[in-house]
# Entry
Amino acid sequence: MRTVSVFACVLLWTAHANAAPAEDALAAYDKFFAAFTTDNYEQITTFFTSDAQFYGTNSPDVVTTREGIRTYFMRALSGARGTTKATQFDRTALTLSDTVVAIAGKWQSERTQGSTMTTAGPSRCTVVMQKRGDQWLIVQFHNSPTPKAPAATLATPLK
# Structure
């Protein structure tokens, strides 16, 4: 019986140890979303590694430098956006190792200028976070519009 108890404790400890990277990476990703609503592209850029791969919603090509990511957000966040709120939903995290976590999900933004609210999205996002030193940073980022669901069609019976 004692062996079973020890085994159960080790199993529970292992499950907790594997959950920590995903929780930590998601917490860092949440900070990125909070920064996104501030229009502070300098701060947003600090969430990416210097060698990150980046596909923003409007990126025609992959961006592979922090300066390129900064330029993307500088252009994307320029102009009068009003008050911005970013909401994440349907997200999931997959722990690939103690230092690498893949995150996938959807999000949308709401912008209010005066009395007009505009909703953009939902968009789908795939992110790979890596722990470098004591920080979780984005090493790969892809964001794209969510395609509309196909129209329902009548099923044709097979003969």
User: Anything to note?
Assistant: Residues 35 and 43 are 7 Å apart (CA to CA). The two ends are 60 Å apart (CA to CA).
